[in-house]
Design brief:
Layout: H1 3-25, E1 44-47, E2 51-56, E3 66-71, E4 82-90, E5 96-103, E6 109-116, E7 127-130, E8 136-141, E9 149-157, E10 163-174, H2 184-200
Antiparallel strand pairs: 1-4, 2-3, 3-10, 4-9, 5-8, 5-10, 6-7, 6-9
Helix pairs in contact: 1-2
The structure holds calcium ion (CA).
Length: 201
């Protein structure tokens, strides 16, 4: 084996280790159709007459599709309009991370709220974010669940003001935030960076 061939083989092994290592660290998304790649909205739903959602096939940050949401009337309360992914159970003692990619030409606000899906609508780690005109990643991590939360839902409150926003690549998983795990785009960038570093050696 020539030195060049050995070097090439070493590089391939190192590259494979980067790929395998990355895939093993990826958390499991508890949301079906979190990236809207079915081309339809289900099982997501919205409430509030002012909320007009539509899956669109252009401008996505991940894959082909994202969700475009219009709020045509400001709510009396910001929670009067929402985007939800229902049917969950949060396990006692576990923490969860909710990640979403968002952008809004009007820089709307949005409230991330994993919650009890019935009165008193107890939230876990809920936080209001302010979107920007460019796609960016936002996340929260809940405190440990003090008890089993059932029924539970992943809710975004979206009646802060009149405007529109785009959402894509939503993930909800057990544990702390894992950088880059929610974004195929970021993952590719990371691999490209690692590959570039390997080649530079
Ligand atoms: Ca998508």
């Amino acid at each position: 084996m020539t030195k060049t061939r050995f070097t090439m083989l070493s590089l391939l092994v190192m590259f494979a280790m980067v790929v395998v290592g990355h895939s093993h660290s990826a958390p499991v998304n508890l949301l079906a159709n979190g990236n809207f790649e079915s081309g339809a909205m289900a099982p997501w739903s919205t409430y509030g007459a002012m909320i007009k959602p539509e899956v669109v096939s252009s401008g996505a940050i991940e894959g082909k599709y994202c969700l475009h949401v219009v709020c045509d009337t400001k709510g009396a309360n910001f929670w009067d309009g929402g985007l939800q992914h229902a049917g969950h159970i949060f396990d006692q003692g576990k923490i969860y991370t909710l990640v979403a990619f968002l952008k809004s030409p009007q820089k709307l606000q949005i409230n991330f709220k994993p919650e009890l899906a019935q009165d008193p609508w107890t939230g876990y780690g809920d936080k209001v974010m302010t979107m920007t005109e460019s796609w960016a990643e936002y996340y929260i991590t809940t405190p440990p669940m003090p008890n089993t939360v059932n029924p539970a839902t992943v809710t975004f409150h979206i009646a802060f003001d009149v405007g529109e926003f785009y959402i894509d690549n939503v993930q909800f998983y057990e544990g702390e935030y894992v950088p880059g795990a929610s974004s195929a785009v970021q993952s590719k960038d990371k691999l490209a960076t690692a590959w570039g570093q390997i080649k530079a050696k």
